[in-house]
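Just scan this pair:

***
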Amino acid sequence: MPRPRTGTSTLGPDTIVTAALQLMDERGEQELSLRNLAEELKVSPGAINYYFRSKDDIRRAAYLRVVSELTLPTDGTWTEQLERLVYDFRALCHRHRHVAPYLMEQHPPTPQEVRVYDYILTLMQEIGVPEDQLWHTTSHLIDTVLGFIYRELTGPGPANLAHQLAEFALNNAAAYPALAHAAQAGRVRADETFSTQLQFILNGITALTPRRKDATFR
């Protein structure tokens, strides 16, 4: 069976995923449907079904495309490399907010995800994290980052416990003056909270290894 064609080029998985990402970025995830995607590509919905059985499969492929766009840093100190990786990933997720449901979805590991996990685990080995702590350290970093991004992209407003607590305290300052004072002084924001949590993890990793924070690798 010949492959379906768009109005200008051969239709394929990459073409469909690119169009799906653009559609969801511009119009929202709720607008993704085989019909809308077919209109964008000037093909029939059946032509898209040739490659993807459902729009959920297209969403998952779009998420993996976003993960594959992540560049793995190769220079700088180990803390700089991890910070760059984490902040770049968060920025990617904010540009493509529709990937959020798949951050916490239970599924077999994919090559796109494994390359990131392997990069982090290798870096942990290079800086001297003890063998019996390697997996736990890497998993904790990944779970914390994914969990934070998932909550802030799917929750109503800044889905961060510290932020929500700060808002509650400021709205009830008379009843909770200590909390309100701390919230006002700290001016809790999602970016600040994310940075603080990441620094806690990096400090914890530093405590596990004899290597200095400014050690350079690769």
Observations:
- The chain has a mean pLDDT of 84.
- Residues 71-208 form a domain with the Tetracycline Repressor; domain 2 fold (CATH 1.10.357.10).
